[in-house]
Amino acid sequence: MKERLEQLKQEALNKVENAESVQNLKDVRVEYLGKKGPITEVLRGMGKLSKEERPVIGQLANDVRESIAEAIETKQSRLEDAAMEKQLEEESIDVTLPGRPVQIGGPHLLTSIVEEIEDLFIGMGFEIKEGPEVETDYYNFEALNLPKGHPARDMQDSFYITEELLMRTHTSPVQARTMGARNGGEPVKMICPGKVYRRDTDDATHSHQFTQIEGLLVDKNVRMSDLKGVLNAFAKQMFGAEREIRLRPSFFPFTEPSVEMDISCKVCGGEGCSVCKGTGWIEILGGGMVHPNVLEMAGYDPKEYSGFAFGMGPERIAMLKYGVDDIRHFYTNDIRFLEQYHKA
Amino acid sequence: MLVSLNWLQEYIDVSYYSPEELAEIITKTGIEVESVEPVAEDIEGVVVGYVQSCEQHPNADKLNLCQVDVGQETLQIVCGAPNVAEGQKVAVATPGAVLPGNFKIKKTKLRGEESNGMICSLQELGVDEKDVPKEFADGIFVFPEEVEVGSNAISLLNLDDLIIELGLTPNRSDALSMAGVAYEVAAAIDGSYELAEEKVKTSNEEATDYISVVVEDTKANPYYGAFVIKDIQVGPSPLWMRNRLTAAGIRPINNVVDITNYVLMEYGQPLHAFDYDRFGSNSIVTRRAKDGEVMETLDGQERTLSSDHLVITNGDKAHAIAGVMGGAESEVQDDTTTIILEAAYFHPSVVREASKHHGLRSESSTRFEKGVDPNRVERAGYRACELLERYAGGTVLHGVVTHDELDRSEKTVTVHTSTINDRLGTEITNEQMADIFRRLQFSYEQNGETFLVSIPTRRGDITIFEDMLEEVARIYGYDNLPYTLPAGASQAGGLTMEQQLKREVKAYFEGAGLHETITYSLTHKEKATMLVSPEVEKQAESPVGLAMPMSEDHGYLRLSMLPELLESLSYNVARKQENLFYYEVGTVFISEEEQVTKQPEEVLRASGALTGEWVAHPWQQEKKSVDFFVAKGILEGLSKQLNLPFTFEKAKLEDMHPGRTATVSVNGQTVGFIGQVHPKLQKQLGLKETFVFDINLEVLFNEYQKEEAFQAIPRHPSVSRDIALVVDEDVTAGAIEATVAAAGDPLVKEVRVFDLYQGEHLEEGKKSLAFRLLYLDPLRTLKDEEVEEAHNRILESVKEEHNAELRG
Ligand SMILES: [Zn+2]
């Protein structure tokens, strides 16, 4: 019987070895391990064996069953792997074909710059204030030390709607409104971005509508050196730590003393080139110490309070930072322009 | 202001600075140097030559054969200029000279005759066409007789000069003169300068015997001075004066006019010369013009005047608009022999009014408008007399006839060193303060740290302490101020909720595939009222218009951003960019008044415009044009983002597709609309199917509730059931959804359309809509019978309300 079992085992293992499909293996399983299979038959004949032989043969028969079953399983998984491999081979694709495009939008370059500046000043404890684009003559001019007939009103030739209403020519009225709302008693630390309008014919460097960001800080004991410190911190973060800044005297009706800030030219590093008109410097913003008349009109006592204000044009910054050569690009909305500045 | 470096050098020694260094110093102390440019390209080898003889070229009608003495030698030169003549002194480019444009002068032969150089026109030497005096415009330049043969023509013509262009801010009108610039440069480089004294030899005849002066409006005209000069010989002014005027951008005319202009540039005081014999009386009366009074100005124009303008009259007729322009009748002409020279102070506002009204901005009016130095008015008159004596043969009569109520006193400002330091953040000493005032040539009385500073009248811009603060700061040097940070109590900066939401909405649109755009707020009247959302239309009386627009295209404030957005699409499509998905967040301007008197309401809205292929996979042939549901999906996403349910209701709106447009509302309020642009308008704009939306963000932000409490995740499974219903074509999905939701309440949590079918196997006029229903009770697992019961209730309701049949 022993020999018979050994022989069956050998036979079955050979068949497993030669099986070419999962079905072949199933057949082998039924043939050898089924209830009517030869091993079962062998076990049935065990009654004829001696008491000592019975467990030995029983054990042997079980071992044979197990090794056949194991062989079938191993072979089956090998066959399955091969079949999958074959299928995967058929599923192969050209990975160099383009992917399905995702429709990607993005912010306008001016928005990116405005938000970058907003975030820089938020980091320095400023709040953001907004105000109307149609302003009263009072807030746009008079409250900013530009009474009617003041020659500097010509600097900002404006779009009037009525004698008393106009398109704001700067975002400074937001400063006057914010100060006015605080009843002269509280410090103010704000920046105000927004659209402004001037009577200019649209060309490469002029636009009748453009963007401005202004800042204002009013408190007790504010010094001009504070203005210098804040602007320096801003410029280094916005344009890079390696850029030099320089302040020089200027004139604005709402500040005294007034300053203009230049940063060193990135193109030539200060040597002088066509971008900086040979000076090595590029004008980036204007500002100064808030004029006492402005403080007074907003209800602050200029003997007790002082402050500084500054303003800049995001279009100009964008033009300098990215080399945009025509201000009209910002308002034409050419898709080829918009897509260039979508930072991921 | 154009400053000739050669001229400046005559007043103050700046020679130890390079022009670039000087420009930098001037800029840093207060006046921006916009450019430093040479008058002409560098030229050598051009000398003064004397034309000994000039004969016609034997072989050419239009050429002359000249023998020209250039000092060391005599050159034969062929010259084609029509005005060349024997006895002239001319500019000769000798062989080897290089003229502008890299034009090399060589010995050559012209039509068989030797030509050893070139007689030059000013243009050939690099002088700008507009600066060339009329008489030399079409030919060579001729020097006055007194110049020396063989001398350097370039420096005689001042072509080796550099011009510094100053960008003056409106407060610094003191630098609108060479004297003013010299004071400023002296302060900047710590040099010395003082306006030289005028020297006039006057005759024994008295000016008062020739003229009288009456001023009617002393506020508008606090000072009027009239000088009388006889024996004038009108002719060209000296070459150096012409050169300086040219350098300053003023075209030379004749000696009398040039001298008044020269003094204008030198002192900053405008002057005017009247021909005494043509003045028509011996009495000057300055007065307000009569309304409707007419006079002819120098430029030949008839000007209608009003009482806002001041005129200089002969007691009857106006002969000048004060400070703006003289009259044609008494203009100095070639035969003029006696002149009245006016030196006056006109109030800035009366000159501004007139120059603005007549559109006449001149060197003269701009100076009066900013206020001239009261202490220099009369001195300027004397200076002109001095020059007229010397360069126009004039005899100056004794005395100046005046009406004089001019305040010439100096204002004072008190300055404490400690206050200056507190405001600047500096540690300036009393000695440094005193030194700064010395450099500025401001006199002062010092008492410890207190300075009582007298402000020279030339610096009319300084009136208060803060003005002095700036003077001290700029001379001390802005560069020398320390860097500090504000010491006050710090506040937490940040965005308000609206500002945060605005950023979120923009980020959402961009994530959804839209590009942000910025269009103009000012638009054409027609566009201002196009594609306006119904609730805005209801509120707005009419669009707000500008009083004086620059062009029709930008005359009105928008009520909708869409027309300009569509314009942007159109612009791109015309450039073959066809897939465009744009949005803009901005304000529209709503006025409820017909005649605007108050500020319009400015409402923040979001608009979108989409056209082209939303999905385009070129190699898989997958193409899907944008449609209503793409646009709607974007708004539904926004609704989800803000957790605010949007309701869409079919609507007919002007310029929109009548069958593909809906209003959008939130909590019962209309907030905007969405739909396809009317095909007629699409065609007009050259657009294919284009879908737009426009929605009020302010209402959304007001309705927005920040979710704070945690919403439990349901622990029990939901049950989903699908139903397909056959209904009449005109029954909307929305209506069925509403019925299902109402009938299924509270177990049905979601109803979603997943299929729409029309056509084969369905009756004409019917459609099949399939919905997926989600049943859920967050607190327990639903039993089949409960779901079944609710489901049947729903089927009954839709049958009853919409005659809907289950699709078999
Ligand atoms: Zn540069």
TrEMBL record, chain A:
Reactions accelerated catalytically: tRNA(Phe) + L-phenylalanine + ATP = L-phenylalanyl-tRNA(Phe) + AMP + diphosphate + H(+)
Domain Aminoacyl-transfer RNA synthetases class-II family profile: 109-320
The entry's keywords: Aminoacyl-tRNA synthetase, ATP-binding, Cytoplasm, Ligase, Magnesium, Metal-binding, Nucleotide-binding, Protein biosynthesis
GO MF annotation: an example: magnesium ion binding
UniProt keyword annotation of ATP-binding present: yes
EC number: 6.1.1.20
Subcellular compartments: Cytoplasm
GO cellular component: cytoplasm
Note on cofactor: Binds 2 magnesium ions per tetramer.
Subunit and partners: Tetramer of two alpha and two beta subunits.
Descriptive protein name: Phenylalanine--tRNA ligase alpha subunit
UniProtKB/TrEMBL annotation, chain B:
One GO MF term attached to the UniProt entry: catalytic activity, acting on a protein
Cofactor(s) the record lists: Mg(2+)
Pfam family, one: FDX-ACB
Known partners and oligomeric status: Tetramer of two alpha and two beta subunits.
TRNA-binding domain: residues covered: 40-154
GO biological process terms, semicolon-separated: phenylalanyl-tRNA aminoacylation
Cofactor note: Binds 2 magnesium ions per tetramer.
Protein's name according to its UniProt entry: Phenylalanine--tRNA ligase beta subunit
PANTHER family xrefs: PHENYLALANINE--TRNA LIGASE BETA SUBUNIT, PHENYLALANYL-TRNA SYNTHETASE BETA CHAIN AND LEUCINE-RICH REPEAT-CONTAINING PROTEIN 47
InterPro entries: aa-tRNA-synth_II/BPL/LPL, B3/B4_tRNA-bd, DNA-bd_dom_put_sf, Fdx_antiC-bd, Fdx_antiC-bd_sf, NA-bd_OB-fold, Phe-tRNA-ligase_IIc_bsu, Phe-tRNA-ligase_IIc_bsu_bact
Record-level GO cellular component terms: phenylalanine-tRNA ligase complex
Recorded family membership: Belongs to the phenylalanyl-tRNA synthetase beta subunit family. Type 1 subfamily.
Catalytic function, reaction form: tRNA(Phe) + L-phenylalanine + ATP = L-phenylalanyl-tRNA(Phe) + AMP + diphosphate + H(+)
EC number: 6.1.1.20
Compartment list: Cytoplasm
Enzyme class: ligase
Highest classification ranks of the organism: Bacteria, Bacillati, Bacillota, Bacilli, Bacillales
Keyword entries, A-Z: Aminoacyl-tRNA synthetase, ATP-binding, Cytoplasm, Ligase, Magnesium, Metal-binding, Nucleotide-binding, Protein biosynthesis, RNA-binding, tRNA-binding
